[in-house]
């Protein structure tokens, strides 16, 4: 009865919003953000969707292309790469998403585990992959063949392609302290950015400024780079917000290794995570720590590139950040005030990577139990016999 | 705040219940307690949440028994409550972690219960996956995880939830129903096919019977038997009696009545024509004794050998084939499900047919057994089992029957001697001349027993053959018979002296060879045991077992503090003198026949008497079989067990003595809390294994020995000695 009432209220609110949008009192985006936040708060393990297990080892990384939001790319510790069509059997009650293409260990493929896969942001005919076998490969999706290989001679932990820029540079994070940029146009290294003193575990391009690059390293620093400048390091972020010079040796972003970076979709803030079980939100305009407290639920202890995922930003609804915690759960935080909104549990493996599918407001997670899981909004309107059976209390009369 | 209070109350009740359930450590949950938990949880979802939290706390305990009980309770609630399901499903990885031990979280000891918990959780996952898998993704994931990563085999699991159990039960019922149906159909076909054969066989046997035994209702056959004209009354005795009485009455009537109808009346009352058969009266009693063992006295002879052979053949067929078949049909039909309608009629028809067949077969079987054709004789004297193909088996069987027959015959003739003697031997062993302590000896498997007894029995039991012979030869005529002597003879336990008790003289060394003593030299020549030695041989040792006083009386001397002395001594109390009977107040009671009061402390008995008394008491106390009650009670004052109002304690006696001597009372510093003992809260009995107790493994025992301080010290000591001795040796070897 209770749930029925809330549903009715929600329904009323929707119609009211629709009416208001129709009258022009509120912006259409308000309706969108209302629905978005509602669906996000209902997020749970999707019981009707199963992604077939293909990897025989931990799935290290997944990515959903931005052009159509349809194809999921996954790379595993076994060196294999698979592509799934997420719209397969969309209409069916129980979806089983099968692998549509795969690049298994071949002569041209990776020899070691995949550390990161990225779709080319503008076209799903191409994707890139980095591996612990010290190479970055550029793949032709249609042929599932390697188009180009960059050999970095060091374990590659992560790489990034700017979703904004036209320069076509791949930033790489490897056990070499220098960040090297690979040019897709020429197939050669263009830059080598010195500054870090330890293994670089993560690099990200800003979605706002095409030449702005952020990197995190085991030397506990997060550095911002402008690749156009000759002395390219802009600053090293300081968690204590002291007035020290921007490139001071004393500036540290975390007390221990930094292994995750993520820009907010508007590019104004940067989220960093480290082995000190902390997540920090940085204001990129001032370069200062916002001192947002995300609590103590975070567990982060493995050396890998961890990427928090953010929901799209829209006026009127808070932005959420999803953090794959090492205790086999996904923590959902309000980005700005740092409150823990929800803890998504149910995975049997440590979650290694997350991917956001904007069209359906779904989250996909890769785990080291060789599985990829889909987390979707709970479908309250679904009305089948099984659900009814499960919702029923069956106390016997004698109790 | 009534709802809040209710919640608190329910929470309290739930927490005590769940603690109680999980801490018993038993294999099965107490159904009453589980029911209570369920009834509390049924009231509101808040209570279910509380129960879930409490159960998870219990499940996280590092004790497999607690986890096992918790898992069982979780299974109960999961089946019932939707809220509980939602809660558990959200934490399903943790649940499996705690119950199966995934994610490198091994289950805590004890190992047996850890295994049980694991199996239970796997079965539960299997059943929940079958039922809720499509709805709760986490359960499906857990199932997959167990199957894929732990390679758990989900086939052939024992159902654990009620639902799964009932489903399995139903499936089995269905299976057995189908089996019964199939058997029924098979039996129906068989009945139709074989009934003709069986009936033929029975008919054949019937005709044999007809030939061999005349039918009793057939008059002509009867005549053939008795060789007498028709009309013989062979009804049973009772009938004849009845008829006689009837006739008698009629006769009485007739005496008074007319004689015209006499002839007609005779005919009427004498239909069998007794008079016609020249029987003087119809009051003869005809008694027919039917031999129960052999009711039909038909002997097999050359004339009817052929018929018997046929009969045997038929009998064999019945015993081996038809009878089991018919009983099987009956069995199947009785068990078959009754379905209404046409099938029911068919069933009834079949059942009737089967019953008829069974009856006729049983009839024929019984009749042929009456004729002496039975299981043992179903193969005639020269016949062999033609059905059996295996010749060896055949031979063995014949031999066995022969053997048994022989045995039986022998048994009938005379009973085997051994069997009869056995109980006798035993009896004689126990009753007469039993050795001292034989009862105990007989339990000893190494004790031979019989050897000592045999010669004694020969004398003791006159009814065995040998002893009778002895008796007749040894007992001279005219004197008392042996039986009379035996009746007078004393029963003494066996000892060595019995061998020589009636000997006047005894020889030794009857071999004829001369032995000379190495010091005393050759004897005087007479190989006779000296009278002195013989006398000593006739002596026997007897252990005196004095009667112990059952109860040792207390001194009961009134002390200064009003209590009675409670020392228990045999003769005299060291503080209050001789023990005499006293009343409740400690006053001396007058013994009957004694003049005056006996004052305490006064010597009543003279020294000698007392010494004798004490000596007796000491002897009693020193006797090996002195009872423990004596030793306990003789410790009397020290034990200080009884602390009732009347009885005193050791301290009381001490105070009294000190007072009498004019000394000060000794104050004993009492230990704190000795007087008022704190009562520990009574714990309910629990089968939980104590994990904090160190395991008594061989390693631990060795470690206790090896790592003890004493052994370590001895090692260091040895080392020091060795060191010093080696340095000393080194110095010794240095010459300059």
Automatic annotation (TrEMBL), chain A:
Q: What is this protein called?
A: Excision repair cross-complementing rodent repair deficiency, complementation group 8
Q: Which domain of life is it from?
A: Eukaryota
What keywords tag this UniProt record? DNA damage, DNA repair, Repeat, WD repeat
> CDD domains annotated for this entry?
WD40
**Pfam families membership:** WD40 (PF00400)
What InterPro entries would the database entry show? Rad28/ERCC8/Ckn1/ATCSA-1, WD40/YVTN_repeat-like_dom_sf, WD40_PAC1, WD40_repeat_CS, WD40_repeat_dom_sf, WD40_rpt
**Chain positions of WD repeats:** 52-94, 107-149, 193-228, 251-292
Q: Name one GO cellular component term.
A: Cul4A-RING E3 ubiquitin ligase complex
The GO biological-process annotations, alphabetized, read as: proteasome-mediated ubiquitin-dependent protein catabolic process; protein polyubiquitination; transcription-coupled nucleotide-excision repair
UniProtKB/TrEMBL annotation, chain B:
Q: Where is the UV-stimulated scaffold protein A C-terminal domain?
A: 488-587
Q: Where is the composition biased (Basic residues)?
A: 671-682
Q: Which UniProt keywords apply?
A: Chromosome, Coiled coil, DNA damage, DNA repair, Metal-binding, Zinc, Zinc-finger
Q: InterPro entries given for it?
A: UVSSA, UVSSA_C, UVSSA_N_a-solenoid_rpt
Give the start-end ranges of region Disordered: 233-253, 401-432, 462-482, 625-649, 670-736
List compositional bias (Basic and acidic residues) regions by residue number: 638-648, 720-736
Q: Which GO terms describe its cellular component?
A: chromosome
Might you name a Gene Ontology BP term for this protein?
response to UV
Where are the compositionally biased (Low complexity) regions? 401-410, 625-635
Q: Where in the cell is it found?
A: Chromosome
Similarity-based family: Belongs to the UVSSA family.
Quote the PANTHER family the UniProt record gives.
Answer: UV-STIMULATED SCAFFOLD PROTEIN A
Q: What is this protein called?
A: UV-stimulated scaffold protein A C-terminal domain-containing protein
């Amino acid at each position: 009865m209770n749930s029925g009432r809330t549903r009715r209220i929600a329904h009323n609110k929707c119609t009211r919003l629709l009416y208001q949008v129709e009258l022009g009192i509120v912006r259409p985006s308000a309706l969108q953000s209302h629905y978005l936040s509602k669906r996000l708060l209902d997020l749970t393990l999707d019981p009707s969707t199963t992604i077939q297990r293909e990897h025989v080892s931990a799935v290290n990384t997944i990515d959903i292309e931005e052009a159509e939001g349809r194809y999921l790319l996954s790379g595993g510790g076994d060196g294999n790469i698979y592509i799934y069509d997420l719209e397969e059997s969309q209409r069916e009650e129980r979806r089983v998403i099968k692998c549509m293409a795969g690049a298994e260990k071949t002569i041209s493929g990776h020899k070691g585990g995949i550390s990161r896969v990225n779709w080319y942001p503008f076209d799903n005919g191409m994707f890139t992959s980095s591996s612990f076998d010290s190479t970055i490969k550029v793949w032709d999706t249609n042929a599932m063949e390697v188009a180009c290989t960059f050999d970095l001679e060091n374990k590659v932990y992560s790489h990034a392609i700017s979703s904004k820029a036209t320069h076509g540079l791949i930033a790489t994070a490897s056990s070499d302290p220098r960040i090297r940029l690979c040019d897709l146009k020429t197939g050669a290294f263009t830059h080598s950015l010195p500054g870090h003193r330890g293994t670089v575990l993560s690099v990200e391009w800003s979605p706002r400024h095409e030449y702005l690059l952020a990197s995190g390293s085991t030397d506990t620093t997060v550095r911002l780079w402008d690749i156009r400048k000759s002395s390219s390091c802009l600053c090293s972020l300081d968690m204590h917000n002291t007035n020290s010079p921007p490139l001071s040796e004393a500036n540290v972003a975390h007390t221990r290794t930094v292994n995750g970076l993520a820009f907010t979709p508007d590019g104004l803030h940067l989220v960093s995570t480290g082995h000190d079980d902390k997540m920090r939100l940085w204001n990129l305009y001032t370069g200062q720590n916002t001192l947002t407290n995300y609590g103590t639920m975070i567990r982060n202890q493995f050396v890998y590139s961890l990427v928090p995922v953010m929901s799209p930003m829209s006026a009127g609804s808070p932005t959420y950040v999803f953090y794959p915690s090492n205790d086999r759960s996904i923590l959902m935080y309000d980005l700005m005030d740092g409150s823990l909104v929800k803890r998504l549990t149910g995975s049997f493996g440590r979650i290694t990577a997350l991917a956001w599918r904007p069209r359906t407001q779904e989250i996909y997670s890769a785990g080291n139990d060789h599985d990829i899981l889909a987390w979707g909004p709970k479908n309250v309107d679904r009305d089948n016999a099984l659900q009814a059976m499960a919702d029923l209390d069956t106390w016997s009369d004698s109790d | 705040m009534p709802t809040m209070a209710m919640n608190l109350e329910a929470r309290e009740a739930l927490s005590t219940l769940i603690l109680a359930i999980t801490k018993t450590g038993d294999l099965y949950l107490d159904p009453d307690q589980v029911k209570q938990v369920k009834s509390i949880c049924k009231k509101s979802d808040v209570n279910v949440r509380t129960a879930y939290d409490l159960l998870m706390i219990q499940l996280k305990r590092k004790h497999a028994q607690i986890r096992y009980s918790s898992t069982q309770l979780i299974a109960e609630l999961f089946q019932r409550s939707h809220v509980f399901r939602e809660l558990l499903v959200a934490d399903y990885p943790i649940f499996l972690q705690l119950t199966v031990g995934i994610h490198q979280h091994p289950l805590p000891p004890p190992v047996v219960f850890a295994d049980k918990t694991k199996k239970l959780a796997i079965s539960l996952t299997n059943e929940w996956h079958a039922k809720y898998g499509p709805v709760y993704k986490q359960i499906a994931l857990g199932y997959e995880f167990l199957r894929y990563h732990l390679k758990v085999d989900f086939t052939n699991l024992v159902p654990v939830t009620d639902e799964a159990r009932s489903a399995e039960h139903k499936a089995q019922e269905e299976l057995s129903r189908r089996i019964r149906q199939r058997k029924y159909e098979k039996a129906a076909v068989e009945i139709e096919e074989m009934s003709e054969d069986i009936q033929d066989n029975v008919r054949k046997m019937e005709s044999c019977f007809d030939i061999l035994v005349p039918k009793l209702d057939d008059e002509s056959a009867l005549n053939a038997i008795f060789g007498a004209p028709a009309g013989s009354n062979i009804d049973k005795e009772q009938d004849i009696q009845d008829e006689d009485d009837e006739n008698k009455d009629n006769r009485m009537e007739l005496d008074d009545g007319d004689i015209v109808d006499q002839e007609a009346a005779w005919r009427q009352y004498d239909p069998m024509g007794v008079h016609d058969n020249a029987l003087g009266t119809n009051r003869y009693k005809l008694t027919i004794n039917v031999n129960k063992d052999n009711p039909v006295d038909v002997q097999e002879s050359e004339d009817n050998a052929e018929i018997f052979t046929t009969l045997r053949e038929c009998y064999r067929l019945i015993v081996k084939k038809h009878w089991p078949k018919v009983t099987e049909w009956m069995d199947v039909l009785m068990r078959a499900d009754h379905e209404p309608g046409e099938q029911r009629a068919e069933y009834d028809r079949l059942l009737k047919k089967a019953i008829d067949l069974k009856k006729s077969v049983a009839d024929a079987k019984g009749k042929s057994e009456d004729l002496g054709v039975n299981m043992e004789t179903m193969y005639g004297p020269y016949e062999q089992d033609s059905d059996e193909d295996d010749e060896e088996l055949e031979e063995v069987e014949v031999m066995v029957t022969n053997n048994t027959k022989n045995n039986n015959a022998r048994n009938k003739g005379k009973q085997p001697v051994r069997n009869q003697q056995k109980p006798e031997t035993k009896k004689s062993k126990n009753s007469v001349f039993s050795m001292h302590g034989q009862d105990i000896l007989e339990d000893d498997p190494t004790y031979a027993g019989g050897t000592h007894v045999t010669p004694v029995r020969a004398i003791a039991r006159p009814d065995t053959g040998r002893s009778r012979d002895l008796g007749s030869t040894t007992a001279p005529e005219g004197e008392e018979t042996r039986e009379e002597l035996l009746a007078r003879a004393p029963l003494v336990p066996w000892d060595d002296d019995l061998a020589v008790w009636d000997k006047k003289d005894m020889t030794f060394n009857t071999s004829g060879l001369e032995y000379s003593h190495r010091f005393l030299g050759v004897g005087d020549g007479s190989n006779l045991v000296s009278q002195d030695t013989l006398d000593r041989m006739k002596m026997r040792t007897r252990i005196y077992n004095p009667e112990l006083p059952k109860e040792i009386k207390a001194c009961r001397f009134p002390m200064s503090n009003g209590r009675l002395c409670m020392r228990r001594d045999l003769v005299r109390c060291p503080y209050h003198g001789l023990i005499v009977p006293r009343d409740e107040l400690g006053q001396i009671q007058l013994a009957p026949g004694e003049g005056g009061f006996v004052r305490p402390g006064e010597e009543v008995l003279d020294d000698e008497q007392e010494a004798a008394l004490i000596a007796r008491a000491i002897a009693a106390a020193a006797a090996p079989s002195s009872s423990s009650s004596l030793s306990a009670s003789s410790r009397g004052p020290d034990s200080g067990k009884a602390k009732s109002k009347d009885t005193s304690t050791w301290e009381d006696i001490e105070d009294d003595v000190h007072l009498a001597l004019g000394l000060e009372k000794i104050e004993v510093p009492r230990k704190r809390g000795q007087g008022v003992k704190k009562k520990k809260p009574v714990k309910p009995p629990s089968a939980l294994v104590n994990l904090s107790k160190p395991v008594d493994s061989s390693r631990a025992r060795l470690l206790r020995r090896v790592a003890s301080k004493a052994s370590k010290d001895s090692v260091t000591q040895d080392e020091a000695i060795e060191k010093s001795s080696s340095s000393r040796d080194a110095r010794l070897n240095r010459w300059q």
